[in-house]
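User: Please predict the structure of the protein below. I'd like the answer in structure-token form so I can feed it into my own downstream comparison script.

Assistant: Understood. Taking the following sequence of 174 residues as input:
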Amino acid sequence: MSGMLLAEFAHAHRLQEAAETASRRGYKLVDAFTPFPVEGVADLLESRPSKVRVFMFTGGILIAAMALGGEYYTAVFNYPYNAGGRPLNSWPTFMLVPFATGILGATIAGFIRFLFETGLPRLHFPLFAVEGTERASQDRFFLAIEAPETEEDRWEAVDSLQSAGAIKVREVLS
């Protein structure tokens, strides 16, 4: 059974102290939900670097290469028409379409990767079904940590969060 422990705090500094304590004790911090950015908490959360830029570059280059290849094939092999004495494979005339389609391909690839990384569209997130989490946008601070495997470790984590100032600690299935 995998789950999370969700701790509710009334003050930002309590959340920050709890996040630091949980990180020191080796608990995996899943996320923090706050009405405003709390200094230092984002640094404690384990986040992977985004690969959106890599996917955008790769998608843009591939789509631009396909567009250039298509133009080259149609102008040189499929329908060779000599207009104005230019060579059939005059690359400067081929640059506008690959450039524009490359930008479009990069945008689409980046958007798809963004959706994949963020898990969107996700119509249901179990954490938001917990009563009281709507106050994270108003006046409460929530810290979610990965629940330890054993019951004893779970109780120890709950005690640790409560000693750091948590009002409530609930277990949420993910």
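That's the full token string. The chain has a mean pLDDT of 91.
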